[in-house]
Amino acid sequence: MRALVWKELRENILWAVLAMLALGAAQLYAIHHSQNGMDVDTYFNDGITLCKKQFLLVTTFGNAVVGLGLGFLQVLPELKRDRWAALLHRPLPRGRIYLGKALAGVLLYLVGAGVPFLFVVWHVATPGNVNAPFIPAMTQPGLADLLVGFCYYFAALTIALQGGSLLLRALPFFAAFHVSVFALHEGLFRVAVEAGLTMALVLGVAGWGAIHARDTLRGRSWAGRIAFLVVVFYGACGAGDLLKMIGVMAGNKTESQYGNWEVLADGVPVRLEYKNSIVVSALDVDGKPFADPKYRPDRVRSYTLGMNTATSYIGDSHGWKRQSYNTAYRQYYKYLYALQAYIYPRYEQWFYLRDDRRFVGFLPQKKQEFAQLGVEGFAPPGRPVQGFARDSDNSQSGGDTLFVTTPQSLHVARFSRQQFISLDLPAPAPIYGMCHAWANVASGSVDFKGIAFGTAMTVYDANTHVVATLPYHHDVDRWGSIGLGVLKSMDRFVLRYDPSNWIDWNTRKNMPSYVDVVDATGQVLASYTLARMPSHGDASTWSSYLAARAQSPAFFFGDLLYRRIGAAFGSERLRNDLKERLGRDFPTTKRVCITVLLLALALSVVTFFWARRAQLSDRRQWAWAASVLVLGLPGFVMFWLAGERPRTVSCPACRRPRHIAEENCAHCGVAWPPPAADGTEIIESAPAPSPVTA
Amino acid sequence: MNTAPVIEIDRLTKFYGTREIVRDLCLNVPAGSIYGFLGRNGMGKTTTIRILLGMEEPTRGRTRVFGEDSSRLSPETRARIGYLPEGHHVYGWMTVRECGKFQASFFPKWNQDVFEAVITHFRLTPKMKAGHLSRGQRAGLCLALTLAPEPELLVLDDPALGLDPVARRSLLQSMLYVTRQPHRTILFSSHLLSDEERVADRIVVLDGGGVRADCTVETFRQRLRHYVLKFRDTPPAPPPVPGLLESFRTDRELLMTLVNVTPEVEAQLAALQPESMEPMDMTLEDAFVSYVGERGEKTFFTHQRNGHQ
Amino acid sequence: MPLGFIISPASDVPIFRQLMHQIQRSVAGRSVQVGEQLPAVRTLAEALVINPNTVARAYQELIREGLLESRSGRGVFVAERRQVFSEAEQERRLRHLAEQLCHEAALLGTPWKEVSALLEKTWKQLQSNPATA
């Protein structure tokens, strides 16, 4: 066994080293690749390093290629009939031979794909190399890709060891592909890794089965058979993923159509309709187009106010907990974000570390940390700093100024002077949120902060002066989602009230929104009631439609069950998902459910008759029909590609088709006739020639 | 003494797709004998051997080696079987010594003396790179790797293929060397009838998917008889006697090759009233060619080309 | 005894018979003396690269013919000359060879005188100088 591992390592180590160099070079290049022709290390640095799209592209595809390549290289050259026989004819169980290969392959893969990744991590973690703080958790996307790469390695082993049609043998690849797609879309690192490792294990077991019996499932252990069927099932799912992607790429793009209300620069609400992200109509509250040519659909976006929402609720009495940011593990935003660079008097770049809830300042020229900012103010680098409170929020104004809020406090940091000062609250605590209001004016950009209190919104300018305090004029208990806008004249403000997030969606969808234009004293100058826009939802493409509806009943109900169980065990994420599916999305859920069931039923019937025609035994006919009923289209693909098709010849006794592998005819029960003799045989019994002595 | 056959093949049938390669093949190989596997290409020799060693699944029927089902040979049983597949593959990047060390790590009963004796016999040195060996040398190395674990059963699939006469002779010597120990069994397939004749105790002729002959070389030669019947005039058409393999007519002669000749058959031939009738000995090669070749009356190619007379 | 036998497998004469003939000739030519031991079956088989059973069979046939004798546990020896063939069999064997010789001579146009002289010379040589046989 040790010799076998050694042999495998020795045979392919060169390839692994080659892969290591190639991947390492590609990953380093991706890390330092400049976007838009700018030097990422000085301008527009977002500090995302290990979460960069280019880098993840390399880890996703590069690791897959290395995994596939090593798997194939380990088996295919040796698979020539006699060479393979020489390998297998060893006093070792086949499983051990497979294990030897797999063990060596895992090591080779770690050399080929793991070492470059480690190197890049080390490179990024070493100060002076990149102009960004190193956050260990940012290795998660790359790590997930590294582990998902094992799927490709074992897929290659399984593909090489498995006999049968090309389509069938392609399925392990698609199973791995499916996991890749899953890991790409999954939000949680842990779940992505679990999926990757599980599929790698399943593929590994499938390959282990295939080395025992190349062409048939007979001769494999139960684990090997089941693993292979699972691989086929997920392979079918992966092929569906690919079809979906091709459908999207082939121009069959999602037709997105939606509308929303915005506020024009002069304070008038405008109803914008978008189609594929292009404004197709701009109407006023009465549904009429504007006379002013600058409000034509093609230009109107230049004349709308920049405003966002300070808070989604006021008051915590409704049991609505502020949702923590649930950003997917592949998004750099989960780990950090960069503040706008501050250039005078010297060039500084600040980053907010989301997990530590502290800021880190970098000198881009030196690519080194020079200061940090925590709840106790600025501090030199390297010292442990207490982060901001969990419920704190921050927002930058004009480069130099940073507002930091907690429900009870308001602080301002000045980067140029390394000052961190507390401001007195102009209204009673708590602070419900902070928002940003901006507009482009001739003299530059206006940049205001709105701080939402229980009864009023306070507006600060970039110099931290209170510009206005605007009392609310609507029922903020229910219209507690409040946004702020500033008109160009800077003495008029817009408050927008949307229904609070804690209100059930079905109720919320019938509630209007309000826009008030107020002056600096809070006097309402104009008020508009905005009718709720119908939500269109995305019109699906044929392929995504098919993919959604072709999923198996097992998936469909399993998914719901998973969320139900998760909710029962207290997972908020799963409970919200479930609520959404059975609440807002219930009509879709119902439609999909019916389609899934009907499709599964139809395919199950087809399977039954197909199995009957293929001369499968009664038990197998029923078993397959039942499997397809449960597994849906992927199950059907499973039967189509992996289901046994016993060969038949015409029975010499009854002339009906009979299995060549069965001793007796299924129809007439007659055994095969003995071989015909024609009198030319020379059979001399009495073997055992006396062994020669001496 | 173990009297159970080393190899038992019971009504083995193998299909590739709808093509039946092996049909109802039955064969028992007792311990302590050298069996020669003969047959034209595509008659299932290699397939049978591969099924025997569990490399392929039979469609029907059973094969056992040392009493164990072929598809479930335990590692212990495998260690008792030496198998030399066609092609003589070696890991080209290893030296001869490394090949030996590698192979030795799998076998509990590795005899380094045997390994060295065989490689010396084939004029190999331990430092040679396996990838640079000639065909014959490679065969020698493979043979050494196969013999050194001292297998009780040696299965050689066309070992002489592509070897020069000297290497072939060394191969045969090695085979005889193996049977020095009692109860060592060899099953080897070959197209070289002279080799089979030299070393085989018995030959098995595969034809049409099954065993057509299973006997000693001597019996095979005795059972096949070539008759030259001389006539004064144009000879008559050959009578449809049982066991007629092929016949050939010249101006005054009728030549017939027959198998399993009985006195009745000889009487039928005598009834043709030839001027003389002479049974003649055949070489093994001629006998084999007649046995597995095309049946029926042979004509010259030229006649065929000009249209039949 | 010398093992200089020549085996040609492609011949129409079976190998064991080829071996028998050559042993017979050696004994007749006195290159092997009465009472001398023949090589062990396996030794001869490995030297000639033929199946040991073939050697054994040749020995057995020759023991049956009385040319050789087996002394249990010690091996095979050239036997004391004794006649095992009937007179008719002796004659049949010789006549077969005589026919061949005469046919050949007739074909070559060798006169009988020379043929008989040759026979006589060969006979004398056989008696006096076993090695050249």
Model description:
- The complex is a heterotrimer of chains A (694), B (309) and C (133).
- Chain A has 694 residues and is α+β, with helices and mostly antiparallel strands.
- Chain A is 40% helix and 20% strand.
- A nine-stranded antiparallel beta sheet of chain A has the order 17-16-15-14-4-18-19-20-21, with no helix packed on it.
- Chain B folds into two domains: 202 residues, P-loop containing nucleotide triphosphate hydrolases (Rossmann fold, 3-Layer(aba) Sandwich); 79 residues, no CATH class.
- The longest helix of chain B is centred in the middle third of the chain and has 14 residues.
- The termini of chain B are far apart.
- Chain C is mainly alpha-helical.
- In chain C, helix 2 crosses helix 3.
- In chain C, strands 1-2 form a two-stranded antiparallel sheet.
- In chain C, 56% of the residues lie in helices and 6% in strands.
- Chain C is globular and about 50 Å long.
- The longest helix of chain C is centred in the last third of the chain and has 22 residues.
- At the A-B interface, helix 1, helix 3 and strand 24 of A face strand 1, strand 2, helix 2, strand 10 and helix 8 of B.
- Strand 24 of chain A pairs parallel with strand 10 of chain B, so a sheet runs across the interface.
Write the layout of secondary structure elements.
The complex is a heterotrimer of chains A (694), B (309) and C (133).
Chain A: H1 2-32, H2 53-75, H3 81-88, H4 94-125, H5 140-161, H6 166-185, H7 189-212, H8 222-249, E1 257-263, E2 269-275, E3 278-283, E4 306-311, E5 336-338, E6 349-353, E7 358-363, E8 368-374, E9 377-379, E10 393-397, E11 401-406, E12 409-414, E13 419-423, E14 433-441, E15 444-452, E16 456-460, E17 466-471, E18 481-486, E19 492-498, H9 505-508, E20 513-519, E21 524-530, H10 542-549, H11 553-568, H12 572-582, H13 586-613, H14 618-642, E22 648-650, E23 657-659, E24 682-683
Chain B: E1 7-16, E2 19-29, E3 34-39, H1 45-52, E4 60-65, E5 68-69, H2 75-79, E6 81-84, H3 96-104, H4 112-121, H5 135-147, E7 153-157, H6 165-178, E8 185-189, H7 193-199, E9 202-207, E10 210-216, H8 217-223, E11 224-230, E12 244-249, E13 253-259, H9 263-270, E14 276-280, H10 284-292, E15 296-298, H11 301-305
Helix pairs in contact in B: 4-5, 5-6
Chain C: H1 15-28, H2 41-48, H3 52-65, E1 68-71, E2 75-78, H4 87-108, H5 112-128
Antiparallel strand pairs in C: 1-2
